[in-house]
Amino acid sequence: IEFDAPLASTLNLNGAARYTSYKTSGDYTTWKVGLDWRVSDAFRVRATRSRDIRAPSLFDLFAGQNLVAVSPTDLLTGLSA
Questions:
Q1: Which of 29, 35, 47, 67 has the most CB atoms around it within 10 Å of its CB?
Q2: In the beta sheet, which residues pair with residue 40?
Q3: DSSP per-residue string spanning 44-78
Q4: How many Å apart are CA 45 and CA 3, to the nearest integer?
């Protein structure tokens, strides 16, 4: 949409959606909504919001569980808890 108004010379809204079915991790609907608002030649506002996923890799699927133990250190005394 292009117009000459006091608070906007261009306003664009865009979006997308996708449904995906993975055998290993299930069904997901991902989406994206974006806004591009050019107030003037010197000022522009852009924003995007989305829900994204990543299909697991072979390593993610078949690697054993990893457990990491962390012993915090007191920054004042340098002693481990």
A1: 35
A2: none
A3: EEEEEEEE---PPPHHHHHSPP-------B-TTT-
A4: 16
- β-strand pairing of 44-51 with 8-22: unpaired
Distance in angstroms (rounded) separating the CA atoms of residues 16 and 20: 13
> What type of residue is 34?
G
The pLDDT tens digits along the chain (81 residues) read 555 666 667 889 999 999 998 887 789 999 999 999 888 888 899 999 999 988 778 888 888 777 777 778 888 888 876
Question: What six digits make up the tokens of 54?
Answer: 């990543």
Tell me, what's the pLDDT at 58?
Answer: 84
Contact of 44 with 74, CB cutoff 8 Å: no
> Is-contact 71 79, C-beta < 8 A?
no
28's tokens: 């997901």
Cα distance between residue 15 and residue 28, in whole Å? 17
